[in-house]
Amino acid sequence: MKSYFKVKKNDRVVVLTGKDKGKTGKVLKVDSAKGRVIVEKANLIKRHTRPSQTNKGGIVERENPIEISNVQVICPKCAEPSRIGKKRLEDGSLVRQCRKCNEVIDD
């Protein structure tokens, strides 16, 4: 089943639950099949990697995916976390809209 996610790559989001509650960051990747996002500097884990030709190895710290329902988009116009709605423009295209200030988020 395909569903519509209101979070896209390069959005600024705030984490709502978990150990990183309240942290903000940019969305690096959206995995729509699993319903997860990777947020910059949030949900960091340590991975022990083996040396190879491309990397040195050792303990690497990286971002782990977060459930998409546990983040909320920060509106670029009002600079507050808000819910996102859909709006159809006069030319027939669908855009995302902030529910607090009613401004269009997509350009």
Fill in the keyword field for this structure.
single chain, 107 residues, mainly beta, SH3 type barrels, 2 domains, 5-stranded antiparallel sheet, two-stranded antiparallel ribbon, 9 strands
What's the layout of helices and strands?
Elements: E1 12-15, E2 24-31, E3 36-39, E4 44-49, E5 58-63, E6 66-67, E7 71-73, E8 84-88, E9 94-98
Antiparallel strand pairs: 1-2, 1-7, 2-3, 3-6, 4-5, 8-9
3D architecture notes:
The protein has 107 residues and is mainly beta. It folds into two domains: 12-74, SH3 type barrels (Roll), CATH 2.30.30.30; 82-107, no CATH class. The chain contains no helices and nine strands. The strands form three sheets. It has a five-stranded antiparallel sheet with strand order 6-3-2-1-7, with no helix packed on it. Strands 4-5 form a two-stranded antiparallel sheet. A two-stranded antiparallel ribbon has the order 8-9. Strand 2 and strand 3 (36-39) form a beta hairpin.
Write a compact overview of the structure shown.
Helices cover 0% and strands 40% of the residues. It has 107 residues and is an all-beta fold. The two termini are 28 Å apart.
Beta strand %: 35-45%
Low-confidence stretches: none
Examine the secondary-structure arrangement and name the CATH architecture of the largest domain.
Roll
How many DSSP H or I helices?
0
